[in-house]
Amino acid sequence: MSHSEVVDSKTAWAGDNNSPFGAGYGKLMMWFFLMSDALSFTGFLAAYGFYRHDYGNIWPTAENVFTHFPFIHSHQPLLYVAMMTFILIMSSVTMVLAVEAGQRMDKGAVIKWMFWTIIGGLIFVGSQAWEWYHFIHGTELGAIELGIGTIEINGVVEQTQGIIGRWADESKEVLLLPWREIVGDVTSPYISLTGEALKDALANGEAVYGANMTHNEYGHPLFADFFFFITGFHGTHVFSGVVLNFIIFVNVIMGTYEKRGHYEMVEKVGLYWHFVDLVWVFVFTFFYLV
Amino acid sequence: MEHSNEPYKYASHHSEAEGKKTRRMIWNMFWVLLAITTVEVGLGLTWKEMGIMWSMVKMTFIILTVAKAYFIVAYYMHLKHEKTGLQNTIIIPYVLLGLYLIYMVVTEATYTHFMDYFF
How close B65 comes to chain A (CA, Å)? Predict the structure, then answer.
């Protein structure tokens, strides 16, 4: 075999020009990239799991945090994120339909399905922005971050520093502490503070509105940190997926792949797009449901 | 190595008839994924009223999630129809990592409290 500077995808492999696993060079590299990329997400989710387990007794439940839905003013736990999940699954369907159309060399159908995939991706990114806005903005009532002190819970003296208490209602007479039993059935997740105990807590505490990297009115600040990092990292992937899809979409319209004789490029971005959906499946479960 | 003029042989093509079958599979999978998500959300909203143990609910969520991941990877990402070597290359590292992480979280997660003293 002679050496040459020119390497193209047809001859990228040595040994009779046969690709390992019978997959094209680009597609194989996409698989390996996705595998390594998934490790980053695994790292994030594993770290999240550790802290969640560690602070299990004071960790906020997502269904008490993400309760907004556009144009509806009542509490709608999980509904919005369920809708986002549905949109992402739907865009996965349109993506795989675009791949299927490409394998039949049906240019019109590829254009149609890729268009809807891009629209779905944009709606998802927009929904994330909307959810971030509400999370950062917080509620009108706000919450109280307790200062240094102790409190007796079920006969055990616990440190109160950094614990977030949320108001039961607008009268601000009852403060609910998110203290849950770590073991067993969780039926009554809150400890209520009233009267003298509330006065003591307020004297030491500080009002918090919304969430940022150091304070979080919904509960432990680490919940906010992980929320920003994990959904932010995922959102970046969705956004870059939309950009990649758009580039390939333009190429499809210009007939690049028609000329090339195959639509494998659509298959490659399709793999990336399904990966984005796949990650969301895990984020949805471990951040919103569990 | 010379530039080869043989056509690119790794791109998959199929006929209209095969496409019809593939499309039916795609939509079937869509209903499966939608059903699993609906069950997850429904369970998340009602498990307290139904009086199910949280640990059971948690395990159900995880099993359903893995099932969903399997359907996406196997059918939408087409891994089920790739060669065994490629399947193993992608899946085996995750099976090992998964087992390791489960072990770590179950046995050592409480030690993260010690981090508080250092940071």
Answer: 7
Sheet with A191-193, side-by-side order of all strands: A191-193, A175-177, A164-167, A143-145, A206-208
Map residue A158 onto helix, strand or coil. strand
Confidence (pLDDT) at A181: 57
Q: How far is A213 from chain B (nearest CA, A)?
A: 15
| Pair type for strands A191-193 and A156-159 | unpaired
Measured in degrees and rounded to the nearest 5, phi and psi for residue B84 equal -55, -40
pLDDT value of residue B2: 46
Q: How far is CA A260 from CA A124, A254, A255, B7, B49, in A?
A: 32, 12, 9, 10, 58
Low-confidence ranges of chain A (pLDDT < 70): 1-17, 180-189
Q: Which amino acid is at A211?
A: A
Fold classification of A22-139+219-289 (topology level): Four Helix Bundle (Hemerythrin (Met), subunit A) (1.20.120)
Q: What is the ipTM of this complex?
A: 0.88
Whether A57 contacts A180, CB under 8 Å: yes
Q: Which residues of A96-130 are buried (b: 16+ CB within 10 A; e: fewer)?
A: bbbbbbbbbebbebbeebbbbbbebbbbbbebbee
pTM of the model: 0.87
CA dist A122 and A240 (Å) reads 11
Give residue-wise pLDDT tens across range A233-246.
999 999 999 999 99
A271 min Cα distance to partner chain B (Å): 6
B95-113 pLDDT per residue, tens? 999 889 888 877 876 676 6
Residue-range domain boundaries for chain A: 22-139+219-289, 143-208
List the 20-79 stretch of B: residues with Cβ below 8 A of A. 22-23, 26-27, 29-30, 33-34, 37, 40-41, 44-45, 48, 53-54, 58, 61-62, 64-65, 68-69, 72-73, 76-77
> Whole-angstrom Cα distance, residue A1 to residue A254?
37
pLDDT of residue A194: 83
